[in-house]
Amino acid sequence: MFYNLTCVNEVSRIENLEKLILKTCILKTGKSINWYKMDWKDCWEKGNMPWHIEAVHPKFLLHVDKITEKKNNAKILFPLCGKAVEMFYLAKKGHTIVGVEYIEIAVKQFFDENKLSYETKPVPEIDGDVYENEANNIKIYCGDYFKFSQTLETNFDGVWDRGGLEAVPIDQRGKYTDVMKSVMKRGAPCVTEVPDRPVGEGPPFNLTADEITRLYDLKTPPEKVDYDPASESLKSMNVDGMIYYYYKINS
Ligand SMILES: C[S@@+](CC[C@H](N)C(=O)[O-])C[C@H]1O[C@@H](n2cnc3c(N)ncnc32)[C@H](O)[C@@H]1O
Predict the structure, then answer these.
(1) Which pLDDT score is estimated for 236?
(2) What's the domain of life for this entry (predicted)?
């Protein structure tokens, strides 16, 4: 009897949690998007990308030396890269860039908007293709990040993780950081953006320093290097009061 009661309470607790998680938010366009069951393809097809910014991210500019460690030709990973302009910014400075993004529209827009030609090759491991501009040392793997591995790329000197770890479903975070750890050089830096917001809302989903410590097997907590309130463009994602924190992780 007691057991059944516990189960009923547990079920309603989970249902309530699901309702919270499945909360929808209304974008500026008036469209309602269920952010937990995020349909990234739909976002790209309809041009609903409130996370995308045309100018190089101000926090990236402030902390870029922590990512490259002032090396001349660092190999930098952009997981879940979208069409982040920071990739071309670093390529122009002589670094080698690898992005991973599974929506083809995003990848093509990146190359087209930066007026970069590209060649494509099939990559069966990720059920996709790699788009490459050899002259500028930029490659974007157009496929599932969770299938990306050290058989494709390894020895990354640094990572800029904005809109990656914070965007994936919470139950996939461990898998996400496992991929990251397997392709990075040991001890290489990753600067990551994570939001502080109520649990259950998102993406982007709340992430604490403790959780980062656990996910990256760190001996000491990650260094908090900066913070920022959510930008105006993100206000359309129901993120009022949300603060972004920027951590430097050396895993
Ligand atoms: C919030 S956006 C961040 C984009 C980019 N990092 C930026 O700063 O503009 C997340 C991106 O991840 C992509 N994405 C989501 N899940 C993915 C996966 N499993 N593999 C590859 N790309 C994925 C989405 O299509 C989307 O473009």
Answers:
(1) 72
(2) Eukaryota
For 162, left (φ over 0), alpha (ψ -120 to 50), or beta?
beta
CA of 234 to the centre of ligand 1 (A): 15
What counts of helices (H) and strands (E) characterise the chain?
7, 11
Query: Do 207 and 246 contact (CB within 8 A), yes or no?
Result: no
Put simply, whether the predicted model's pTM sits higher than 0.85 gets the answer yes
Tell which atom from ligand 1 comes closest to the C-alpha of 144: 20
Pick the range with the lowest mean pLDDT from 1-10, 66-75, 216-225: 1-10
Q: Give me the amino acid identity at 14.
A: I
- Identify each DSSP E strand in 2-107 by its residue range: 24-26, 32-34, 75-78, 96-100
Q: Beta 128-133 vs 138-142: how paired, if at all?
A: antiparallel
CB 103 within 8 A of CB 41: yes
Digit-coded pLDDT (tens) for 135-165: 999 999 999 999 999 999 999 999 999 999 9
Q: Which of 90, 101, 242 to mutate to test the pocket of ligand 1 (most atoms within 8 A of CB)?
A: 101
Residues with CB under 6 A from ligand 1: 40, 51-52, 80-82, 84, 100-103, 106, 144-146, 162-164, 167
